[in-house]
Amino acid sequence: MKTLLSLLCLLSALIPFCDAEQSALLSAIEALPNCALECLTTAIAVSPCQLTNQTCICMDSTLQASVELCVTKSCTVRDSLVTKNTTATLCHAPVRDRAPLLRSINIGLGVISAACVLIRILYKLVVTVYELGLDDYFILLTLVCGVPQTIITDRGTTANGLGKDIWTLKPTQVTNFIRAFYVMEVLYFAIVAILKLSLLFFYHRIFPGANVRRVIWGTIAFDVLFGVAFVVVAIFQCRPIGYYWTSWDGQHSGTCININALGWSNAAISITLDLWMLAIPLSQLVHLKLAWKKKVGVGLMFCVGTFVTVVSILRLQSLVHFASSTNPTWDQWAVNVWSTVEINVGIICACMPAIRVLLVRLFPRVLGTTAHTNQQYHAKYGTNKASVQAKPSNSSRGESSLATGNKIAITYTQTFEVQHGDNDMTRLVEMDDLGAKGKPKSSSSSQVSA
């Protein structure tokens, strides 16, 4: 240590006689922690570089790797970050920053998903006369949890260095970033489960069959257990809880479960549950009395949600180094991006059937059918119930004839035409066919004789 101090004193004395490049190098060396300076002098002793040759030190990758390995073993985490920042600045390493892109994705998708939910709810409350269903309440709850996540992503993680290299940040920023990330992790587990509940209650409303409803209720129960279990485990994954965001510097004591295993298991179960939930509506298509083109259309409507499953699968790649990264503010950027996309796109997909009904009303010639009823919307999401229009048919007639005696027989025939608006969300699938197979449909005509 005395040798190091003597060397520093000598270098400081030489600074006035050095050029600008050497002065910057010597100033940087003075700013290094003692443990890092020892690693640097040891590595330079066996390298072709001189302590005052900045260009050689910055270009020698073997020297830098040797110093970095030594610093990791000999210095604290905080000292390692100071050393990395000093050397990166000295060698004019580019400053990486992906925060603006994440901020745009987060705010943009957050506004769109919130608008979709509000349009869905306001349309049903203002235009239609039916009360909100469980699927509506759970999509609202998803939004209630999603808005804080959007705010925390912007003002918590991104504002404290997400998308930047950790060595460019202050220690307080690193702690604040990990604390915000912890809250986001808990919210993510809750939002994913609640969003699935909204879709499941939507299935429960449109599928009247007893067997499929039992399957849906079983899936609902599993989803509730899945969500509660992971939220509780996420909250108490470290003991004490604060050790989650203080453990990074290696100066605090505590224990945590395998955080990587927690993230991977949640993603695997969530993807499997998504595939199961996709199979529920598709399994009902075989029972529908529809033309194959209409079946394809209905199937594609339900398959829109597979995009969320694809995003969940892509998110798995970002979990490879989820808890073991030495540069979490940079490496966990992808986790935040895919989580943000997954949640907001899921909300948008859950609102698409209701938004389609609204668009059909606004643009009937483009999205509607050629036959529409004039009856006001009274069904859920503003859909048309079957309207009955009584019209005399071409063959409707009144006949009078004289029979034997003074008896007169009058025969009156009236035809009832039943029309269904194609803009009814539920009528996209003839759910009555699922509820009572073999049950005859109501007759389109009736005759009354007097």
TrEMBL record:
Signal sequence range: 1-20
GO CC annotation terms, alphabetical: extracellular region; side of membrane
Region (Disordered): 429-450
Membrane topology: Lipid-anchor; GPI-anchor; Multi-pass membrane protein
Transmembrane segments: 104-122, 180-203, 215-236, 267-286, 298-317, 337-359
CFEM domain: residues covered: 1-118
Keywords, ordered alphabetically: Disulfide bond, Glycoprotein, GPI-anchor, Lipoprotein, Membrane, Secreted, Signal, Transmembrane, Transmembrane helix
Highest taxon, organism lineage: Eukaryota
InterPro entries given in the database record: Extracellular_membr_CFEM_dom, Rhodopsin_dom_fungi, SAT4-like
UniProt entry tagged with the keyword ATP-binding: no
SS bond list: C35-C75, C39-C70, C49-C56, C58-C91
Location(s) in or outside the cell: Membrane; Secreted
Record family assignment: Belongs to the RBT5 family. Belongs to the SAT4 family.
PANTHER family: EXTRACELLULAR MEMBRANE PROTEIN CFEM DOMAIN-CONTAINING PROTEIN-RELATED, PTH11-LIKE INTEGRAL MEMBRANE PROTEIN (AFU_ORTHOLOGUE AFUA_5G11245)
Name of the featured protein: CFEM domain-containing protein
Native species: Lophiostoma macrostomum CBS 122681
Biological classification of the source: Eukaryota, Fungi, Dikarya, Ascomycota, Pezizomycotina
